[in-house]
Design brief:
Blueprint: H1 7-15, H2 29-38, H3 43-53, E1 74-76, H4 78-94, H5 99-107, E2 115-116, E3 119-126, E4 129-134, H6 144-149, H7 163-166, H8 172-185, H9 197-200, E5 215-221, E6 235-236, E7 244-245, H10 252-259, H11 264-268, H12 277-300, E8 384-393, E9 399-407, E10 413-422, E11 425-434, E12 442-452, E13 464-470, H13 474-478, E14 481-490, E15 495-506, E16 509-518, E17 525-533, E18 540-551, E19 561-569
Parallel strand pairs: 4-5
Antiparallel strand pairs: 1-3, 2-3, 3-4, 6-7, 8-9, 8-19, 9-10, 10-11, 11-12, 12-13, 13-14, 14-15, 15-16, 16-17, 17-18, 18-19
Helix pairs in contact: 2-3, 2-4, 4-5
């Protein structure tokens, strides 16, 4: 008796889900978009691609169609969804500011039909019947993406948990609705337990896709995933550290091939058949070379295959052949610093120990979970930076003890207050403003540098406003230099302009000098400082500074001061 035909294979062939052998090198449009996202060289490109992955589900269908509507029947291989989850995870880690966008895409999909009882299924929807085939163990990534997000038991030690679920960033009612939809309706792992609703409940919860009245048809084992996943742009990254990517050099053969545009006949026609074996062999080699060149061009220019329009169309313009691809530089969206490094403030203090403590955003770290709950639950930050300092004047021996605290209500904004006691006399100061630590940014500050005596309130009549700019220069950075300029205007209308240069021979050692000129005329003056910062948490800093009225370019070392300070942030 002949063996029964594989119904799923027949459906796939009839519906056009499995492509002809001559198109075997063309993966589904969804995979091409994921490859473009995997190879994205900067946050702008990644954001555009993430935007195209939003809401790609057909109406009434909560899992993505791998052909994006280009085939009569929607279908999805579990192996491709595994690739999607892994790509979204590494995108969130490479571009921290895009993490929530990547998370929203993963949370909008329904995993109830694709995974049941730790088994994966390929799906095809035909005439409102959902056919399911048991996936084999030959997925391109071996279920790495599902494992990273916590779908498989046991969970990895660093399960990737969406911040949208792990941290309550919405109103309580809205948060619980989002959690309910993801956990109970779409079978996404719970942020605390790491279990899906089917694993957590006994008896097994009856969770099904109710968007359309699909009739379930269970099938046998599915054929292997027919497309390869091996992007040659392998991304090298490290969470919370510098992101680097390997430069891709355009092969000489590709450059030559891309110079001449193919004619319509060359695009559509095939070589004439011949009986000569040598000629047939040459034609096969030419076809193979052309396929390899098209694949290389997709790798070198990932945007061509998924930014807009029909993704499956390969007749797109290749990258310029005469210019080798430059090594991309991806700027961290969360600005982090080397441990112990002293960042040059855009608006430099005019007194010893007077630098405003700035709250630095924590770099993203992988979260560790178990199947029963969160292992290293991070407490919500108070976004407060505190510095305690003691300054001794070399000129008169006076001693000034100060405590300065800064609260950052949101990224780069600050409210600062400080209290000091100088030789038994109390005083205080205040400042509010915006200060971005990155080069190429503007900072604004309004306040009183003090000391204000008790009973004087905010003493706004002696306050001042400052605006500064931190220079962005590759030449300066190469020489371990940083520079800034600022203009300060007092409440009485007096203005002065300052320029500051700082040199960091080592991350924890810095030398700084500032030149100041009154805008309405007057003699210029300058100040200078040199200090050391410990790289340990709660760092200790020792600094010599001279903020006296030093005539330019003279100096007066004995009029300086020594400051010892320690800083924390919570």
């Amino acid at each position: 008796m002949p063996a029964p035909l594989n119904k799923f294979l027949l459906l796939s062939l009839g519906g056009g889900v499995l492509i002809a052998p001559v198109m075997a090198n063309e993966p589904p449009p969804l995979q091409q978009k994921l490859e473009a996202l995997h190879c994205a060289t900067d946050a702008h490109i990644a954001k555009k691609l993430l935007g195209e992955l939003h809401h790609i589900n057909a109406p009434g269908q909560r899992w993505p169609d791998e052909w994006l509507g280009q085939k009569p029947e929607a279908s999805l291989h579990a192996g491709l969804l595994d690739i999607a989850l892994h790509t979204l995870k590494i995108t969130a880690e490479r571009f921290p500011d895009l993490r929530e966008e990547a998370e929203r895409i993963a949370l909008q999909w329904d995993y109830c039909e694709i995974m049941e009882n730790q088994n994966f299924h390929d799906l095809i929807l035909r005439q409102k019947k959902l056919y399911k085939m048991l996936s084999g163990n030959d997925a391109p990534l071996q279920w790495r993406g599902f494992r990273e997000w916590g779908f498989l038991t046991p969970d990895p030690t660093a399960r990737f948990v969406p911040k949208l679920l792990d941290e309550i960033r919405l109103a309580p009612n809205a948060y619980h609705l989002v959690l309910h939809q993801a956990y109970r309706e779409r079978c996404f792992p719970h942020p605390e337990t790491g279990l899906t609703v089917r694993e957590a409940e006994t008896p097994t919860a009856a969770v099904a896709n109710q968007a359309l009245p699909f009739q379930m048809v269970t099938e046998a084992t599915a054929p292997p995933y027919p497309f390869k996943w091996n992007p040659s742009c392998q991304v090298s990254y490290q969470v919370a550290k510098k992101v680097t990517e390997r430069a891709v050099t355009i092969p000489e053969t590709t450059q030559k091939a891309s110079k001449a545009k193919p004619t319509n006949a060359q695009k559509t026609s095939k070589p004439a058949p011949t009986s000569n074996k040598t000629e047939r062999k040459k034609q096969r080699e030419l076809r193979q070379t052309a396929r390899q060149q098209r694949q290389q061009q997709r790798t070198l220019a990932p945007l061509v295959q998924g930014v807009s329009g029909a993704v499956g169309n390969s007749a797109t313009k290749p990258p310029p052949p005469t210019v080798a691809a430059k090594k991309p530089t991806v700027a961290q969206q969360v600005y982090t610093t080397v441990e112990g490094e002293t960042i040059l403030p855009t608006i430099v203090s005019t007194s010893a120990g007077g630098d405003i403590p700035i709250y630095f955003e924590d770099a993203p770290r992988p979260q560790a979970h178990s199947t029963t709950g969160i292992i290293d639950n991070q407490k919500k930050k108070r976004r407060v930076a505190v510095t305690v300092s003691d300054t001794v004047s070399l000129k008169d021996g006076s001693n000034n003890v100060a405590v300065s605290a800064t609260w950052s209500p949101k990224k780069d904004w600050f409210v600062n207050g400080s209290a000091s006691v100088k030789d038994g006399e109390p005083g205080y100061a205040w400042n509010v403003g915006y200060a971005n630590p990155k080069p190429g940014t503007v900072s604004v500050q309004v306040g009183h540098t003090g000391p204000i005596k008790p009973g004087q309130g905010l003493d706004t009549k002696n306050a001042s406003a400052s605006i500064g700019y931190k220079v962005k220069s590759a030449a300066l950075t190469k020489r371990k230099l940083s520079a800034s300029g600022s203009v300060n205007i007092s409440a009485q209308g007096k203005a002065k302009a300052s320029a500051t240069v700082q040199w960091n021979p080592k991350p924890n050692v810095n030398v700084r000098t500032t030149a100041t000129v009154p805008v309405d005329g007057g003699s210029p003056s300058w100040s200078y400082s040199a200090g050391y910062s410990s790289p340990k948490p709660g760092k200790l800093r020792v600094e010599y500074s001279n903020y006296g009225n030093n005539a330019f370019p003279g100096d007066n070392l004995k009029d300086g001061a020594i400051t010892v300070s320690k800083s924390w942030q919570f």
